[in-house]
Amino acid sequence: MLRWAIAFSLADLLLRSLMAGLLTTGLPDAAAIGSIALGALAAGSVGCVLGLVASVSRPLAGALLFIALCYDAAAYAHFAEMGTYPAPHSFAYLGEFAGIWPSVRPLIGPLLAGIAASLASHLLALRAMPLARASGARPFYAIAPSLAAVVLTTGMARTGSPAALPPLAALIIDGALPRRYHVLPGEYLSTKDVRAFQSALGHDEPFGGVYADSPLCGRGARAAASVRGERSVVFLVLEGLGKAEIDAEIDGRPVMPYLRSLASRHVRIDGMRAVGVKSCQALPALFSGLPAPTSEHILRRTPLNRLEGFAAILNDDGFETGFLYAGDLAFEQQGLYLEMLRFKHIEGARVDDDFDAAAWGIPDRELLRRARTWIDDRRAAERRYFLAVNSLGTHHPYALPKGAARRFPGDGRVVMARETFALLDDALAEFGEWFLREEAPRGTVLAIVGDHASHLENASRKAAGLAPSFDTPLVLVGLAPDEVERAKAVALRPSSHIDVGATLLGLLGVPVPACNQGLDLLGDAHDLDVRRLEARIVYAVDDDRRHVYLWQGSEELAFDAESGAYELVDPANGALRGGAERSPALSSMQRFVDTLFPLSLVLVRDDRFAPPPARYAAASARSLAGSGRPMIVASHRGSLAGLLPPSLENRLPAVREAAAAGFRWVEVDVSISKDGVLFLHHDSDVELADGRRASTTALPFDEIAALPGKEGLVTLDAFLAEAPAVNLLLEAKPASTAEATLLLARKLARAVLAERGKRDIVVDSFSRIAAQSVRAYSGCEVGLDTPFRRPVSDEAIEAARAAHIDWLYVEQSVVDASLIDRAHAAGLRVMVYTVDDEATLARLRDKPPDGIITNRIAVEREARRLFAAIP
């Protein structure tokens, strides 16, 4: 057996080297000495099996040796084309050879070359036999390496490091030892489940189950269908743009005449479905090719899961990548997500952008003008590019920019929503005509899709007991004639947001990332793709993550996870009705859903979207241990000898007294009113004259200031103009709506920038969005307030680090040396509140924090003595 093991190992290493020279795409890395050694041992395990056969029939063993080498050659060719070795399930497709011939055809040349290389390797193997026999190895020494090879080979395959495995060894282990993923106690998913899930998504070659830590990822990027030359792509992701909005009319007048005309003149893929009803579901689908999980919204999770996307591959291929967003990148961690994907240029709304009326983002026309400027700059540098543009002008509350003219009668929300879409259409007309004139002749492709259907449309459908709409047509402009024909053939068949990235990469001739689950809708294997689109399952998840909507061919079903019931959905009007048990798609959809829910739990809970260590993870924060920065000691809302009553705190007189007493830092609270005025106030609500309470964001500032007990209430602008020369800790109080919180953050950032050079400022908030937004706009240090008197976990510290937070604000009773060490190791400073006695100071003496907030000047003086704090 030993000589057969040696012979096959040498033959496979030679074959790998020969094939690497014959193929234009790289093979699994076997250059490192360790990889070569492990590969040889793995091949040896196959050779041992051949040795057992040789003990019965040497001619048969020789024939099997040649067949094994031919298989390895074919598998290497398969890897070069598909990015993965064949798996056991791959052989099921041999019965559909006529259908898969377009996919197999590119492999014929490398396969013939591989057979020739196999002959050379076979001759080497035969010549190696006498050498192995001459070693005089005893049977024990032949069996021991065999067992070691099997153990090592199995370990390599199970731990997600298969690069050095010979294909035949990988095939045997993959079939004999399917990987398992833990879901709940006693519940597991297998490799078979994962690949069945991918097969249901439409992949003729499911590629998951390779890595222990990332079920859906393959071994490498999936090769592009073809090379399309020096193309660039402009990708517009438009807020709430569904089919109903594109086709809407008021009094016989189309709301979006330009987009309708553009789509009719070029390509409109009406079968495209959004993966959900929120942008936080759409972005990972569009840019990472990830189906929507049912357990948790990915971009709302903290810390953010490891995610990969195609921007990094485009960067490596020489493209300039950019993402322009109309609003605040701190919202739903979009900025962090785009950084993780490695977009080179990421730009949100600017701090001086004036869009306070709508609160969500800059007008669509201005956003698209910035896109034109960005593109012109890249053209001047003669660079290929991929630019994504994400609009917000059609987001609720459907407010028109200042000076925008109305065009439809009425004042209801439906009419106002249509007004915003009409305004978007005007902006698209200006941009589209420029694109057709300047960029289309250069071969650039323009892609347009909605992130989801309109919230207003779906609210009315749900109120009527109908299924929500997920129809978000994909419009493609600038395709070649053959691509137009392919697009027309698939236009009405079910497709998903997860396919958009793979399709755009296919148009650029760029490989699809290993964890992307999408299909290239316009790929060269067109005939096969059309048949697969008919059989595949496309699904979307509602915001409650309880309801899942599934499509297969012409069938649409709705699934309620709480009741476990399926209902038919009328494709004409979205009506839900019984009779799902008669649907021919029910059984396949049930199997799909049975995998979807546990798989979503594994992916999100265990952070398994991308293989660890994440290739594009954020850089580790530097440790702050021993940084020597002096401690900050701040007066709490201007207090000197105990907490001030609400009628006196956060007032100019209190701050002046604190400064006069010796405080050099003062902490105050900043809230926002209905009319967008920032003012100093702690509580998020106020008591009205009749005893009722109302949110500060529900009342204009003048009304709040006129309430009993609000005498001396001061706006932030007035406070900064009249405050003494003290440094400030400004706590941004979260507002009752996300829009108001983002508006508060942007205005606060403007105020911070205006104070630069006059005083030091740190901004903190219980809202991560507010803290991130202020930091992004102003560059000042920001802090995140942790839940009151709750222990701070390692996950919370990691989430703050990943969000580029500078300070953790922690209530004094939960602070200890361990917390401070863990925070410092993550690059975070610690602010402790409220420290009002010497005993607490003494407890902190051995491991002092970076700052404290106190109600007593005596504590400030003692802290200065103990810790050499900033005076």
Which short descriptors sum up this protein?
single chain, 871 residues, alpha/beta, Alkaline Phosphatase, subunit A, TIM Barrel, 3 domains, eight-stranded parallel β-barrel, seven-stranded mixed beta sheet, 29 strands, 42% helix, globular
Radius of gyration from CA coordinates = 32 Å
CATH architecture of the largest domain: 3-Layer(aba) Sandwich
Largest sheet, spatial ordering of strands:
19-20-24-25-26-27-28-29
SS field, number of helical segments: 29
How many independent structural domains?
3
CATH class value of the largest domain = Alpha Beta
Number of β-strand runs: 29
Enumerate the spans where pLDDT stays under 50 for 5 or more consecutive residues: 23-38, 95-101, 131-164, 614-622
If you consult CATH, what is the topology of the largest domain? Alkaline Phosphatase, subunit A
Helix and strand content put the structural class at alpha/beta
Shape: globular
Average pLDDT, rounded to a whole number, is 83
